[in-house]
Amino acid sequence: xxxxxxxxxxxxxxxxxxxxxxxxxxxxxxxxxxxxxxxxxxxxxxxxxxxxxxxxxxxxxxxxxxxxxxxxxxxxxxxxxxxxxxxxxxxxxxxxxxxxxxxxxxxxxxxxxxxxxxxxxxxxxxxxxxxxxxxxxxxxxxxxxxxxxxxxxxxxxxxxxxxxxxxxxxxxxxxxxxxxxxxxxxxxxxxxxxxxxxxxxxxxxxxxxxxxxxxxxxxxxxxxxxxxxxxxxxxxxxxxxxxxxxxxxxxxxxxxxxxxxxxxxxxxxx
Length: 270
Known about the structure:
By secondary structure, the chain is an alpha/beta fold. It has helices at residues 16-25, 47-63, 74-79, 95-105, 117-122, 124-132, 146-151, 160-175, 192-199, 208-223, 246-254; strands spanning 6-10, 31-35, 68-71, 91-92, 110-115, 137-142, 180-183, 204-207, 235-239, 262-264. The strands form two sheets. The protein has a six-stranded parallel sheet, with helices on both faces. A four-stranded parallel sheet has the order 6-5-7-8, with helices on both faces. The model has no long low-confidence stretch (mean pLDDT 95).
C-alpha cells in the first residue's frame, strides 16, 4: 500500500476529465492536479517550449512527493512523448492507452484523430495505432479552436458557435466513414455531445483522459502501489493563473462541485 498521491497535470483544465475517471476507479487515492492555466493552450507552441513547460509541471508534482505522474495533456503526450522517460517514478500519457483502445474497438480499421495543431503535427497517434494494427487507416484533423471554446465555457450542446466550428472541423472525417474517433485532447470530452451529433451514433468516441486513468490503475496494480486504505481519497487543485472562477469551470470537467481551496503556483519558480 502506498499512500502518496497521484500527480496529474495539463495545460489547462481538460486534465480534470482524467481526474474524474481516476476518482471513479480509484476512490481511495489522493490526487494532486496542476493546471497550467496561465499558459494554455500548449497546442500552438513549439516542441521545445512544450518540453520546457511539461518539465516545470512535472517538477511541481515531484516537489509534492507524488508516487506517479499522468500527463493528461494530449499535446505533451504526443509532441513531447519522452518527457517522462527520466522520471524516477511511474509515468503515463494519453497517446498509448487511447491508441490501444481505438485499435481494439474499431471494426473497420478506419480511425479518426482530432487534436491540437501540435498533437496532429507530431504524428504520434498515427505511429502508435499503426504499430498496433499495421492495416489501420488513420485520418487526422487539427481542431485548434476547441480548447479556447471549452475554456471559455462555450460547451452547451446547442451552442451555435461551437457547433459551427465542429461541423467544419469534422466534415472531412465524416466523409472518410470512420467508425472510431480519438478525442486527442482532454478538453474535447466536454463537447462530446456536439461531436457525437455531427459524427453519428455509429462512431465510437475514445476519451483520452479516461483511457489514461485506466492505464494508471493497471500500472498501480502491477507495481503494487495502489492505496488500499478504506479512507476516501482527497483531491488538491493548483493552477498557474488566477484561482477565481476555477471552481465553476473546473466542476464542469470534474463532473461534481469542487470543494476546498484552489492554490496558485508561480511557474517561474519551478
